[in-house]
Amino acid sequence: MLFFLPTNYIVGMLCWLLVVGVVLRVLLSQRRRHRGVASRLRWVKLALSLWMLLMMLTGCELYFALFVDESDAFNMTNVSKRWFDRHIEAQRNSFGARDAAEFHRSRPEGRRRICFVGDSFTIGHGVPRLEDRFTDQVGAALERSQPGKFQVANLADPGLEISQIEARVHGVLRSDYEVDMVIYVICLNDIEAYDSRTDAAIKSLQVAQPSFFLFTETYFFNWLYFRYVQLSQPGTRDYFPHLANSYESEAWDGFARKLEQIHSRCSEHQVELRVVIFPFLTELGNDYPFAKAHRKIMSFCETKGVKSLDLEPAFRRHAGESLTVNRFDSHPNERAQRIAADAIRDGLLSDLMQGNTASK
């Protein structure tokens, strides 16, 4: 963990420990010197009590700096940013994808290449081990079912909305990467770019950014600050409440155009497109607010002849379980990743599992 700490933080912490060490030595010297003077000794004891409090806080800070390894939904805390550097940035291959295997232009001989695209839900935000992600589990299931027939690549990135995902698919296909199937895992906030309310919501998050060094340069105090922000502003730990009706506004038209473009890009290169819809796990239940959005996307895919899978029914059966990374990170955890992998394997890729592996 020390490797992932900034140099200026390490230097600053060492200087701070040196200062408090010197202060302790001075205070102990003063206590011996004024042992018989009650009025002076009282102030020395008060200073020692303050020193002990500062050391307890320093201990909390060092614990968070060295041992706490967790993410949050919007990657706001320094702890989460370090998690991101350690588990996502450090795991990228030469293509820039968070994947154990390299992604070359030519697929391995005799294999069909399946590329998953999407955002933080697909890349596995909050999930440290690559093998625990649903994309890797699907790849492992295909390998067990049809050894040597498939290569699964994860080309997702956090924060991508549908126009950026379309650009990524276009870029890969235009650059002559050999791809047989693209699976677009839709997270319902992929529509954000077409709703002006998103900009206002993001700006409200930016206003919450601290400026005082004790909150910007630390881990524990920075964590406390953002936990207060997240508790006082629920939107900073979940998704923007306007998204559900974005699908009933003209934002849907922009989203649908981009989805059609992804379909067209794939068709032009004789690549099959399939679609997965991932629900918001914190909203599951009988009054799931995005039910209409799911139906609208599924209807669009049916009209275009795109094989699609809605994961909401699979997750609805597990609504009472813990499915998110933590209280402040609503991304799917390892349990949710397994549920998604099983549903995709059985519901979207059952034809491949049964041996229909003819190359394009």
Summarize it.
By secondary structure, the protein is of the alpha/beta class.
Protein model, in words:
- The protein has 15 helices and seven strands.
- The protein has 360 residues and is α/β, with parallel strands linked by helices.
- The protein has a five-stranded parallel sheet with strand order 2-1-3-4-5, sandwiched between helices. A two-stranded antiparallel ribbon has the order 6-7.
- The chain is elongated.
- The mean pLDDT is 91.
Please compute the radius of gyration using only Cα atoms: 25 Å
Strand order of the largest sheet: 2-1-3-4-5
Strand proportion, as a percent range, falls in: 5-15%
* Tally of distinct domains: 2
Can you name the CATH architecture of the largest domain?
Answer: 3-Layer(aba) Sandwich
| Distance between the ends | 46 Å
**Mean pLDDT across every amino acid position:** 91
DSSP, total strands? 7
Number of helices: 15
Query: Quick one: CATH class of the largest domain?
Result: Alpha Beta
Secondary-structure-derived class: alpha/beta
Q: Estimate the global geometry from the Cα principal axes.
A: elongated
Major pleated sheet: 5 strands, parallel
CATH topology of the largest domain, by name, is Rossmann fold
N to C succession of SSEs? HHHEHHEHEHHHHHEHEHEEHH
Ranges where pLDDT stays below 50 over 5 or more residues in a row are none
Helix content: 40-55%
